[in-house]
Amino acid sequence: MQSDAVYSVPRLTVTVTTSDLDRLLWGLVAVSLVGDVVTTFLGLHLGLTESNPIARSAIDGYGLVGMLVLKAAAVGVGLCCRPLLPRVYQPIVPAGLALPWLIASGINAYMISTVL
């Protein structure tokens, strides 16, 4: 079978500016940060252990405040380094913060599911 027909596929055109992407990614940073902190402390409450030695030390010494200080320091470094990049590459900073925290949240959720 052969067809010479031309098919038209409607396309949805969306314009995403660097500012829009930047704002979306910083929102993702906030969500992933909260997700990581909540799942970490839920896992600790259920008897799991923190695998990151720096985070484990901060949590053992200072609890939630220690964890939040670590997260704030990471965000602070990102905010300080962001202006060093050309504007078009600046969304890499929140993406680089959000991605590991999203992965950590997923791993934490999986580990929590194994003990429930």
Task: Describe the structure concisely.
This protein has 116 residues and is an all-alpha fold. It has helices at 18-45, 53-81, 92-115. Helix 1 (18-45) runs parallel beside helix 3 (92-115).
SSE diagram, text form:
Layout: H1 18-45, H2 53-81, H3 92-115
Helix pairs in contact: 1-3
Question: Can you walk me through this structure?
Answer:
The chain has helices spanning about 20-45, 55-80, 90-115. It is mainly alpha-helical and about 120 residues long. The mean pLDDT is about 95.
- Please report which band the strand proportion falls in: under 5%, 5-15%, 15-25%, 25-35%, 35-45% or over 45%: under 5%
Outline type: flat
Q: Could you describe the largest sheet, including whether it forms a barrel? A: none
Q: In angstroms, what is the radius of gyration?
A: 20 Å
